[in-house]
Specification:
The chain is of the alpha/beta class and 700 residues long. Helix content is 28%, strand content 14%.
Length: 700
Amino acid sequence: MKNYADRTECKDLPTNSDQLTVALLGCGPSGMSFMHHLSEKKKKLDPSSPEYAKLPVVTCFEQADVPGGLWRDRKEEDNQDPECPIMYDDLWINGPKELIEFYDYTFMDHFKQPTSMFITRKDNLSYITARNSADGALDGVKYNHTILSVKFIEEMEKFEVVVKNNIDSTVLTSHFDRCIWAMGFNGTPKRAKAIDTLCDRDGFKGKLIHSVQSGQPDFEDHVKGKRVVLIGDNLSAEDLAYRCVKLGVEAVYVCTRSGMGQASNVETWPSQKVEIIGALPLQIINGTDVECQRYTWDTESEKYVVVAGEDSEEIFEQDKLHRLQKKHLKREKVVVSENNSNCWTSVYDEYDWDDLPTRTKAAAKLIGYSKRIWNNDGDTAYSEFDWDELTGEQQDAAKLLGYTKDQWDTDEESSCSSSVVSSVKSSTILLEDINTIIMCTGYNPNLGVLSSDLRIEMQTDNILPGNWKMSNNLLSADFGDISPARVLKFMSGTCGVHLISNPRMMYVQSWDTDIPLFEIDVYAYVALAYCCGDIETPSQDEMYKRCKKVINDSMDNPYHRYEADPAYNAQICQIFERDYGHKGEDHWLDDSHDERNDKISIDGMDLMCRELAQDMKRVNHPVDFGTYEELSPLGEQFRDILHFSDKTRIDVPPAGTPESRWCTYRDMTDSTCRSLYTGTAPVPLKDKWINIHDNTSLSN
């Protein structure tokens, strides 16, 4: 790799009166893509032409000494900073690589061989760096320069950017016509203060860290052979849960309040070592036991609130969230009277099917239980079998449910008297002997360097009309009209790449989709088109109109509304449980493979791709995904790969099968998920993912 660190000078570049000056903040994937597209545009023009003379003069500032942003290789000095937001070395991408392939530099161009569908961080860094640094595109980047402040000077109609040279500590102030934020939103770790407080107050004896520290050299020491609690259930929790299993964890409990994250969508974990817990820590007992408190959605305050009232069946029913959120309770204990020592009852007798932990439900299926049989206390096909007639795997499953050989063969459950006491369902859950707690609670964007008028918000007020109602869809008949929340999870203040209040400020950023690197590259191309004058900047009225349409269309789509509207999400879950879960009735939402679930997912991804296609069409992007009205064949292929990515967590072999002991979504492959540009099909991993411990996904 080039020695980028040597280029530390920072001088203003001469321009002519027709050239825009642009401050590009950051040289991670966003900044790299912008610089690449600028370099490619220069190569297509005659340097003596008027068009070339009008190209913007771009100054890119990067705090690190190399490009790559969060993807860059971790160095020793990075380990000295516990809050340094860099990916850990052995991280893998969490979606098919076919969704991040560059149209002008394919994976075959780079690797010279077909590769697996999922690749490592290191391989991906190699790929994006090679493409974006070609022909010296990154040679002019000002590495080792930290942004101190950015503000817009009305009188000058320019941005004032103040940076510090990290080498000699000199400070430089420069002025630019345009400013582009390319620094992402993973700035500083967002710690859960309540978790910090209770661990300190109650004397937690284990290790408490944020996920950002998972790249530290001693991370394995805190998880191997240990019992780990992850706070939060989004992508970092999912990834760390898999990583902990690979490193030899004893058990992982993913604690979640809302159950809306990616980890809650995983149906089968390797060796069933991971459980999703629908509760958050309340207190630490004896230094190692974590008591967790369940939450429920309050429609009036539009917040998740603590479930009050121990052992309240009514509260419990209100709080149970359906299978889409994968909330499971930990096994509770049974107290057996000394006077009835021969009497036995399953620790799960008081549980409904949907309350069973992941491993327990899988075990129940192995000995013949279904939801309907379990909830109605029915017999299975194996009820008449003797213990020795069961397979070894079925015996293990029976043991997990609490059986011994004698208890199975004598079947004395029916003779138990009322002196057998089973713990009733309550609003708290106890996780015992916890060694490590990891906060997977995300990051605060480092927007503080921007003046307040240049910042965007991560959510927006509901701007829908007061009489707005969702159009009829597959869920309408069963769930009716649900009023939207007052605050929705849409970025506020931007339209496409533009800050609406000041369109000279642009953001090249992924807007919380499943295709961040692809989206970043597209919007870098879009931002350059605006800077070059290839397309006119829309008026503020037009931008507001576009934003309203995006929000309206997303809220009219069950897939997107479920993610953006917390009221819709929570009430769908509560209505589902009230009308179906407690009656022991099946609903197609409970079946991830039902074609109606597929329809909702595909329609959601279709909308996402059509919105992207529209932005690409506006700037004559080289890749044709079609229009907002209809995707092109290439756009449909991209959508279908995106849908496959969504289903990989569902299609992992079910618990109880031999493959479930090791199989993860990264072990999944599909020859139909071919490269959009070369048609190359992915190949299987070089080994089971759980056995790959080097930093490359490539075969030798």
